[in-house]
Amino acid sequence: MASNLSSITLKEVHSRADLRRFVDFPHEIYRDHPNWVPALRSDDLNTLRRDKNPAFEFCEARYWLAVKGNETVGRIAGIINYRAIDKWEKPYARFGWVDFIDDAAVVKALLGVVEDYAAEKELKAVHGPLGFTDLDREGMLVEGFDKLGTLATIYNYSYYPRHMEAAGYRKDIDWVEYLITVPENGVERIDKLAEVVRRRYSLSYLEARHKKDLLRYACQMFDLLDETYAHLYGTTFLTKDQKKAYTKQYFGFISPDFVPVFPLIVEPAELLKEIDIQLGIMITYADFHIQATELRVLFPELSAVDDLAGIKEAFEELPKIPEPDEHMWMQIYIRYRFDYRSKSTCNSPHATSCSWRRYFTV
Q: What is the share, in percent, of the chain residues with pLDDT greater than 70?
């Protein structure tokens, strides 16, 4: 499907009504799709509003709708996270909340307006899909279109990556989601490892019966997330106000049964030197025998199953965890392509407008 670019109108979002229309657009194109799991409208609205989202302390953003005639045919957000620019020393704008019909002209118009926005701010590249923070939905689905999505991840049609590549964008990094089938009796090696860790660090499991039992640890949980995932692509440390906002957002509906907490008497970084975080997730679930037959876990920045090799050489008394394969309890479930990028051809760092060229990155 192709339209004339001149038939596409880009309308910037300014009013509350426009913002609701922006948030509601995916419901129009995915309404009857069996694998699409919508984001909560209230979460999206609060994230995108400057008066609700603490990230606007260090971010700025603009949103656009693509309109053809009287019909909305696409949407996109342009975001500049100045903290991320300072941390990673990469002057890139972000695009996110991107959805569109199967039409190359619509895609070109949407990406073009964010590229122009970045050029106006004298930035050198555009990358995404990304949110304000790593806790927003991000990434673009490139494999696993026949699988049911999740509330925490993006589902998109298979034509999305095709249009991105046709527009000159190239993959920068992959996210891989795995399907873990939890054995009824756990995994013996992991159970033994969990016991070693528990004894070594005198760990005790918090018997949380109510959500309020977890609230006292909320700030520490986000501190642990910040420290553990600080190296991941595009992350920035959360501010105090952001932690409060996310606590309010998530702690209203979480179940203590699915949030195991181990109050530590040692620094988390010391523990993580000896235990690979991916394995740590599996230890938690195997050790406490969560009543579920299937568990889906998203492992950022892993592109192959053998990247999940297990444990660092710290516990001599235990054999190395074997690499998962198709005969074991883990398999690749869905692959996400994360961070498509375009870069300008501007020679001057002070250019206010320029033409954009796309390039391959590995």
A: 71
- H/E stretch holding 45 reads helix 41-48
- Tell me the domain boundaries of the chain: 5-170+341-357, 179-337
| Cβ neighbours, 10 Å, residue 289 | 13
Q: How far is CA 245 from CA 97, 137, 142, 234, 333, in A?
A: 20, 16, 31, 20, 31
The residue ranking higher by pLDDT, 192 or 101, is 101
Cis peptide before 268 (omega within 30 of 0): no
Q: Which residue type is seen at 54?
A: P
Residues facing 66 on adjacent strands? 10, 74
The pLDDT assigned to 101 comes to 97
pTM: 0.74
* Listed residue (110, 143, 117, 82) closest to 335, CA to CA: 143
Q: Is 201 left (phi over 0), alpha (psi -120 to 50) or beta?
A: alpha
Q: CA dist 19 to 31, 36, 54, 139, Å?
A: 19, 21, 18, 22
Domain 5-170+341-357 sits in CATH 3.40.50: no
Residue 356's alpha-carbon distances to 115, 129, 293, in angstroms, are 7, 18, 48
Q: Give the model's pLDDT for residue 276.
A: 41
Q: Is 43 left (phi over 0), alpha (psi -120 to 50) or beta?
A: alpha
Q: Which of 333, 332, 300, 336 is nearest to 140 (CA)?
A: 336
